[in-house]
Amino acid sequence: MDIVSFLNVSTSEKKVQIDKLSETSFSKEIRICMAKDSVMQEHTAPDAITILIIKGRVRIDSLEESKELNNGDMVYFNAKVPHSLEALEDSVIRLTLSKHDSEQRVFSLVENIPSHRTF
């Protein structure tokens, strides 16, 4: 049994930090740390995803709709639904991907993230 802590975050000068924390037989768990005012531009995922705000406040825009998510709020997106995120305050986010999705795709969404991050 492995324990994964989403709140055990090392400080970084990056505006967005992405780490794969675990992988199971059916999903991948990704931690996204976003500094206030940082943005992940509009993108899509090839499979369904869930986004859970562990700590902070984030605005998510999708299909001409905008929602503000706070601590403990979660959204679900079907495959290929365009969405973007903006951190309204420093935030820690749990992203759950399909086992078949590539975490490299997520890393590539942010310029300052090395493409070799692993857990």
TrEMBL record:
Residues 33-95 form the Cupin type-2 domain. Gene3D superfamilies: Jelly Rolls. It comes from Sulfurimonas marina. Pfam families: Cupin_2. This is Cupin domain-containing protein.
